[in-house]
Amino acid sequence: MANVTACIKPMVATSNGVFQGDNPVHFGLPLIIVQIILVIVVTRLLGLLVKPLHEPRVIAEIVGGLLLGPSALGRSKAYMANIFPPQSMTTLEVFADMGLLFFLFMVGLELDLKQISKTGRQALLIAAAGISLPFTAGVGVSFVLKQTIAQDGKFGPFLVFMGVAMSITAFPVLARILAERKLLTTDVGQIAMSAAAVNDVVAWVLLALAVALSGSGKSPTIVVWVLLCGIGFVIVMFVAVRPVMTWIASRCTTNEPVKEFYICVTLAGVLAAGFCTDAIGIHSIFGAFLLGLVIPKQGPFAEILVEKLEDFITILFLPLYFAVSGLKTNIGTIHGGRSVGLLVLVISVACVGKILGTFCAAKLSNLNFNKSITLGVLMNTKGLVELIVLNIGLARGVLNEQTFAIMVLMALFTTFITTPLVMAIYKPARNPIPYTRRKLDMEDDPKNDFRILSCVHGMKNVPAMINLMETTRGIRKRALRLYILHLMELSERTSAIMMVQRARRDGRPFVNEGNPDSRDQVVVAFDAYGQLSKVTVRPMTAISGFEDMHEDICTAAADKRIAIIILPFHKNQRLDGSFETTTPGFRNVNCKVLQHAPCSVAILVDRGLGGHSQLASSSVDHNVVVLFFGGADDREALAYGCRMVEHPGVKLHVIHFILSSTIDSHETSSSNTAATATHDHIGINENGFNVKKVTYEEISVVGDPFEAMVASLTNKTRTYHLILVGRSRRPTPLVAQLFHRHTHCSELGPIGHALLDPRIRASVLVFQQHDPMLQAISTLPDSSADQATLAAAIPKQ
Fold it and tell me: Any idea where the Cation/H(+) antiporter C-terminal domain is (predicted)?
């Protein structure tokens, strides 16, 4: 009877509701919902806290699990009884293991066996040293732990588990750290990824051996059967399953939806493979990992699978695994001098063994000191994979609670120190190419090529950018070199890391070449434009976090010797003419580019420039207006307008706004708004390009300059398609009157911000001229420089 009363009563799935006296957290489904929400909220909040420290999210998830367990909140009996009661743990672990199953499948999808087979001698040597020395050190530590706090259990499996736990490198966490630090495509990053991939495969083999050794069977032959069946399962996966998955992958083409049947077969295969390895006795995650490993990485099939799974698994289910690990970890078991000493010993041996082994191998491979020590620190990264090893060891009775807690803290510490140490030790060398043409010039040599870096956020920016480039290229025999940079956010998703791994340049945005499957719609669109218009187009992709995306843009501009960077405005126009923000992070990117750019910058506020499709050269018929208030930025806008008017389909109108007191009295109208003086010029100016029609107008502003500007732009006799203005960093007295309207969008300046008014229907291009001294005084007074620029821009009759 005692055994019967000690049994835990299973939970009923759903409640009848609070109005019928049921407490929802006493029922299975409502309780698991509360548990999932709590885990997500805690880990996400901690993620926000560690983000400024540039730590990977796994740190927040491990700490979150510890806080939810008996180390912190779990000290409250009421909390544990209601939120994590014993009868709910089986359900929670099933959910967590299911998430882990599919996550390991995605890890297998990340590892490319062809790339691993091409791993050079250097990476193999580093991987071998990075496994063997810490594995040996782990075995040595296991003798100390066995004599002190881990006296129970089998000694053989304990040795293997400790060796694997010390020697493992968390491949997904390492890839995330390298991508965020822009090291993934450096020499150090490539060697680290290759060595970590080899390390990962070897570690899983060793873990399978450890799991087989830790079985409960008393006969040694059982271990042999487990190992033989495991080897047979691997052979079946590569000989029988891999051809099937290759055939399925070959049936999937880029930009075409994958048949639901193929997705169904694959996901069912993950579950079946997990069942088989669990039945063999080496844990279900091995089957899922192997299936991901044998799926071909060429073509879109692997990426599509990751995209379909990653959000659901990594956001909803995977954090539960960290929570389950935290609920099993009681830091309170580490008390007294002996326990603390053992914790310090384990951390020291883990760090020294991994770092020293990798460092020595790297030095033997002729790498310098900084690269060698950086590789050692990177290879010391632990994380989820470490927790998997420890949880399996705890479940199999190989590790006790105190040893488990020590090893979890070791994994947390080694991962936490990786990013700050790498940032302090290693900074990739940059060799910027010096160049002088960092802004537009009215006296430009026609023989010089004109280099533009045009950034896009996605397909919504492509038509406007292509039409703008078409009107910019002119008809002179001067080459236009157009570099397109597709800006993509580096998210926490696995697919983002897979995209970044395609990069082939030293930490810089990479050029999209080679495999057609890796080319996105943006690249295809601009390639087509380059072929049709005979413009040299080089599409590139930059995948970075918003906080440092400007570094990719500025670095690309310096490397390509760009004269002007064109950025899309971070807001999109609504049907009523107002603007809405879709991705706020891009505004910070634009502001930082304006601050750090090595050349001139322009921001395009698109209101449907040229429509939503690409215009042929013969179809271009644009009226472009330059609003000239004075200053270096306005002169840059005027210079760009003169470049555009080279195109036979572009007409340029220059409006010079002047305070009423600065012009002669005979030019002043009786109107209280503005006085105008208009001059039409037709001909060829001294720069030698054809000007179909250039008109010049002076407006003397008496009242509100904003109303004068709107009145000139909404004149029914003339419709404008594009407005060119300066950012007015050094505002004239006239521009200063607009500051009372300038409440936000400082990147556009007071005039550009005022032109967001819904009454304005034309697109706006806001210019900032490159000034290395930022607010340095021009060699000419602004008024003299303005007159010289206007004289050069407006052809004489």
Answer: 623-769
Which amino acid does the sequence have at 616?
A
Tell me, what's the pLDDT at 739? 66
Q: How far apart, in whole angstroms, are the C-alpha atoms of residue 406 and residue 401?
A: 9
H-run or E-run covering 692: strand 690-701
Q: What is the 3-state secondary structure (H, E, C) of 43-105?
A: HHHHHHHHHHHCCCHHHHHHHHHHHHCCCCHHHCHHHHHHCCCHHHHHHHHHHHHHHHHHHHH
Q: What are phi and psi of 527, to 5 degrees?
A: -65, -40
pLDDT band of residue 344 (cuts 50, 70, 90) is very high
> Which residues are within 8 A (CB) of 11 and not within 5 positions of it... i.e. 6 or more apart?
26, 27, 28, 31, 87, 88, 91
CA distances from 106 to 55, 171, 434 (A): 22, 12, 44
Query: What residue type is assigned to position 241 of the chain?
Result: V
What contacts 422, CB < 8 A, 6 or more positions away?
Answer: 177, 181, 183, 374, 377, 378
Tokens standing for residue 773: 């001294």
For helices 187-213 and 155-167, angle between their N-to-C axes, nearest 10 degrees: 170
Six token digits for residue 363: 């030095």
Angle at 510 between CA 504 and CA 513, to 5 degrees: 80
Give the tens place of pLDDT for each residue, 231-240.
999 999 999 9
Residues 6+ apart with CB under 8 A from 204: 286, 289
Q: Which amino acid appears at position 381 of this protein?
A: T
Q: Can you tell me the distance from the alpha carbon of 651 to that of 795, in angstroms, rounded to the nearest whole number?
A: 13
Condensed to tens digits (0 to 9), the pLDDT of residues 310-335 reads 888 988 888 999 999 999 999 988 88
The C-alpha angle 49, 50, 52, rounded to 5 degrees, equals: 90
End-to-end CA distance of the chain: 112
Residue burial 742-761, b: 16+ Cβ < 10 Å; e: rest? beebebbbbbbbbbbeeebe
pTM (predicted TM-score): 0.76
The C-alpha torsion from 634 through 639 and 640 to 645, rounded to 10°, is 130
Burial 231-265 (b: 16+ CB within 10 A, else e): eebbeebeeebbeebeebbeebeeeeebeeebbee
**721/623 Cα distance (integer angstroms):** 5
